[in-house]
Queue: 3 jobs
Job 1
Amino acid sequence: MAQVSTVPGGSEYSDLIYEENPSVHDRKFFPQSFYIANVMEIFERLAWYGFFTVSSLYMSNSQSQGGLGFSDAQRGTIQGVIPFLLYLLPVFTGALGDRHGYKRMFFIAFAIMTPGYYLLGQVSGFWPFFATLLFVAVGAAIFKPLVVATVSRTTNDRNRAMGFGIFYTMINIGGFVGAMVAGVVKGISWDYVFTVAACWIAVNFLLLLFYQEPCAAASTRSQIVSKASQKSVFRDIALVLKNRRFVIYLLIMSSFWACYNQWFLTVPLYIRDFVDTAPLLALVASFSPAVANAISKGSPGQISPEFITAFNFFSILVLQIAISHLSRRFVSLHVMIAGTCVMAASFLWIGFGPLFGGFGIVLAVVAFSIGEMLTSPKSQEYVAESMPASQAALFMGYYFLSMALGFLLAGLLSGWGYGYLAKTLGRPDWMWAGFAALSIGCAVVLSLYHRTLSRFDKRASTANTKNIAS
């Protein structure tokens, strides 16, 4: 089997590996690059979620409490615009990774993010914080499409569903541990949140030493490199934009991400301001006073919100592989529709159901997590299985555009909804009803999208059959 250390094809690339050497499949379920990419994803998520799960609290807390003292409008703007740019940039960085090599681009990403996270804790004021977070976002935007494309290239039709399920589990290991560590260290000093995040990213420099660009036959390599050298990034972008099916899919998924991100932008503030978690804290204290003290630092008599939202990551760690295994037998879009409806139900539970204080919020987080587990991995798998495989990194980069639009909408909705509906009018239930309605709307449109595509594909299949017969 020829070993080539250059860039990518797509999912057919991994098929080629197994066909050339079938024993590889028997000896090792996934190649080495798959595992290294997954571990790098853990550490990148440790840093991101270590910051992101407490970002609403950090930005909205007063300066006397160690925060930045931003208004809801300022917080919502940052949390909308910066992630929008973070997920927009992979449109370009995904294509550049195909040309210059994944390993080199990974190194550049880590070299940007390591100092960037540290500097986040050293600046104050709206614009300095905005600029520093944008710097971090550039590094993350380089990293994201490359790690997802690595997973895509090192899996095939036989193991892709499990591969993306494992990948999504790694994301949530990073999310759970990152949130828990951030919650503990912020009780000591907010500065430690950003120092620890920088250290998490620095570990990836060591892991990069063991990363190998996935292999392909020499003929495949020369074909890909020749093709890449003939086209500019912008011609690639134009090519993808001509795929009307893909563009419509991205627009639909942007509404899903707008709702999904409320669990990081709005739920922590809602728990802090509207939910009484003292009974849940008392239950924890009855088993371990030390743990109760650790999770209530900075929130006397209450559980700090990030320890409750961390149940999202924990639920996924426990259930993701099983749900991925069960859902593999169903059509991807059907699973995504079901997951979006479950997410809407979790919003309604928060807004109108019997909350039972902190206990109810934990149940809502678990319900939301089930919806997420059904929808998010399948949304990426759908791209991998339905778009041109020879341009995996490029299409994965464009997939992040739906997240970009979703974040922009999420930040603006969170800033306005929480500032006006929840705080000014005192009606957080109206806010959650709005997010539930948006989730249901996403599910309805996904269903129409699927039916339209099914009819179109059936007509195309019939036409091809008639042409062959004639």
Job 2
Amino acid sequence: MPASAEPATSGSSTIVLFHSVYGMRPAVHAGADRLRAAGHEVIVPDLFGGRTADSAEDGMVIKEEIGKDELLRRAVAAVAPYADRGLIYAGFSFGAAVAQNLALGDEKARGLLLLHGTSDIADGASADDLPVQLHIADPDPYEPHDWLTAWYLRMRRAGADVEVFRYPGAGHLFTDPDLPDHDAEAAQSAWKVALAFLADLPERD
């Protein structure tokens, strides 16, 4: 599965960044470049095999055509060569859900950065002291308040150390400047907080 990465610098973290249902849009590459500029190595798997969507609805069609099992297989295959590094998982919306699923299955995961999305949490999931940060619109049509409250409680029950940052009035994918959802102030704030979170992540045993 295609993935792009920059050479690691001394002391840098390795971040896997997953795209939304829009596919590998310019905003995904811009986000990866922002992380690289902060000194991190970034892997950006293309789970849609080069396909992109002009709307969320079109993206959902692509997602359904590929299928949940195949998307998960592609995600696992993309991170496998780097699994011994203690990865930081990150993603946008659908990609955040993918990132969460992989992080909760990786006992070496160093952190989880969720932008615009979450995923269900299996009973018995364990995320002992895993640092997790979520940035979400408020309200978000895909992440209603009741869901987020339940998600937060289940993540805490699994042992994760969770922070949630809400952005009133922002659109769902507010970090993408090419979408109507974009909110420049919210995006700037989210990236500032996220970069500080990533810089402060401790090493995992």
Job 3
Amino acid sequence: MSKQSADRKTIIVDGVPLPEILDERMIHDVVHGFYEEIRNDDLLGPIFNGAIKPEAWPRHLGKMCDFWSSTLLRTGRYDGRPLPPHLAIPGLGESHFRRWLMLFRVTVDRLCPPDVAALFMDRALRIAHSFRLAVAFSRGEDTLAIQPILKESL
């Protein structure tokens, strides 16, 4: 057991102790690997590369590392508001969220053991559904018609 593991309190996520292998390094690798996929994607790359200037990417990646650290490791480092920038993207729809989730799944499956990949995906699926509901609501659309995207459908 590493000193970091020994110093870390047991974190419970959905009633299950967080796997010790999930640490800041893994979060860093997932975030950086995922956004590398995003930036090179035909559908999502133009959106992200248009919204985030090249010199702003290091800051964005750091913020996303803070977000996932707060989400899974309960560090409390993230204090931003992730929804408003997404609400400002014209035409953002299910196909974008599906691609986002598919690329995220590919990344976590490649970089994480199955139990950790499942934790990341569970959170990503919840976030995507919440954002899709918020986007529909902000456009005055029927939110009852928004069904969750299931991992099995990716």
